[in-house]
């Protein structure tokens, strides 16, 4: 398939070049009118745009050169009819593929084509000041658009990698502790529901950051021995200290993975308490980051309403009562009130 495409577009490129040479030799006037714009888009833009995903990088470069040649050949024919506006097509074509070499190639060859047209068609009069102004502004616009497109693409790739990484880490953690299956996703859902409620009441919470932090809040458990995580009997003090280390272990992992500070802080502090009796650093009140206070509420609610090795699940109503008993000591009072209001919506 790739060979067929490559041969096809080489032939098209040769035909376009041959047509331009014939026009130069015999002085033929353009034989299309506004339809040339459609042909430019059809033969120059569409095939490469649709088919380049099927080609390897080397063939892509050749294919792009051929497509650009077709566009520029058609520009020669179309200029007397369409004027300078047609020269703006190839750079946009080059910008679409987010590579500097394509953008520069398209822009430079388009300018060269413009010079060629003005030489071969002396009857066409361009306003050079207008041309230079438009070309400069267009180059600035394309440059900004190019970098914006690249940034958006990089962010999409980054988010995609983060999502896949998070999914793999969640699977690894939950494989070590059968009782926490689905826990991370439920905590994330509860956290985001609370965050949406808070944003409606004057808070400014980055939903995407909180989503990542809440999903990964227990990621440190990947380094906790399975026999401790799955132990049905009461934990010894030493074993409990090992369990508590998961927040620091998760924090270290998040930093190594270069997540934003708000995410690894939430992972580190989601077991802190408002009264300063939590871990690992016994922070108090607003010393605890907002995301960590949100995740603490969601984490506790899911733990209470889920069956564990040592007890059955509490009903949402009972879980709510237990959490109210810890209002102001374990939980942020303002956040807890909002969470209690949305509990019926979570079930």
From TrEMBL:
SUPFAM superfamilies: HD-domain/PDEase-like. Gene3D superfamilies: Hypothetical protein af1432 (1.10.3210.10). InterPro entries: HD/PDEase_dom (IPR003607), HD_domain (IPR006674), HD_GYP_dom (IPR037522), HDIG_dom (IPR006675). Residues 158-347 form the HD-GYP domain. The chain crosses the membrane at residues 7-26, 32-51, 63-89, 101-120, 132-152. Keywords: Membrane, Transmembrane, Transmembrane helix. Pfam families: HD_5. Residues 180-304 form the HD domain. PANTHER family: CYCLIC DI-GMP PHOSPHODIESTERASE PA4108, CYCLIC DI-GMP PHOSPHODIESTERASE PA4108-RELATED. This is Uncharacterized protein.
């Amino acid at each position: 398939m790739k060979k067929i495409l490559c041969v096809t577009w080489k032939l098209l490129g040769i035909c376009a070049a041959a047509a331009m040479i014939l026009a130069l030799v015999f002085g033929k006037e353009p034989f299309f009118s506004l339809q040339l714009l459609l042909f430019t888009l059809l033969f120059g833009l569409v095939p490469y745009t649709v088919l380049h995903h099927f080609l390897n990088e080397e063939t892509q470069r050749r294919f792009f050169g051929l497509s650009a040649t077709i566009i520029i050949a058609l520009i020669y024919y179309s200029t007397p009819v369409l004027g300078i506006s047609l020269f703006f097509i190839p750079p946009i074509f080059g910008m679409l593929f987010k590579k500097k070499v394509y953008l520069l190639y398209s822009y430079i060859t388009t300018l060269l084509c413009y010079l060629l047209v003005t030489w071969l068609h002396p009857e066409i009069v361009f306003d050079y000041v207008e041309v230079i102004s438009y070309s400069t502004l267009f180059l600035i616009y394309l440059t900004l658009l190019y970098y914006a497109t690249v940034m958006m693409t990089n962010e999409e790739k980054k988010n995609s990698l983060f999502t896949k990484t998070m999914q793999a880490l969640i699977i690894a953690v939950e494989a070590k502790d059968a009782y926490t299956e689905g826990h991370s996703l439920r905590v994330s859902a509860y956290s985001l529901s609370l965050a949406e409620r808070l944003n409606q009441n004057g808070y400014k919470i980055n939903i995407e950051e909180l989503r990542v932090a809440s999903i990964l809040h227990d990621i440190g458990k990947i380094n906790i021995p399975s026999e401790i995580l799955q132990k049905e009997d009461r934990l010894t003090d030493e074993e409990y200290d090992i369990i508590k280390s998961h927040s620091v272990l998760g924090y270290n992992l998040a930093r190594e993975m270069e997540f934003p500070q708000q995410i690894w802080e939430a992972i580190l502090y989601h077991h802190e308490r408002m009264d300063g009796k939590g871990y690992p650093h016994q922070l108090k009140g607003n010393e605890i980051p907002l995301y960590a206070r949100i995740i603490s509420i969601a984490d506790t609610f899911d733990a209470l309403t889920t069956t564990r090795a040592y007890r059955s699940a509490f009903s949402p109503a009972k879980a709510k009562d237990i959490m109210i008993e810890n209002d102001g000591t374990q939980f942020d009072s303002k956040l807890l009130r909002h969470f209690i209001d949305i509990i019926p919506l979570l079930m």
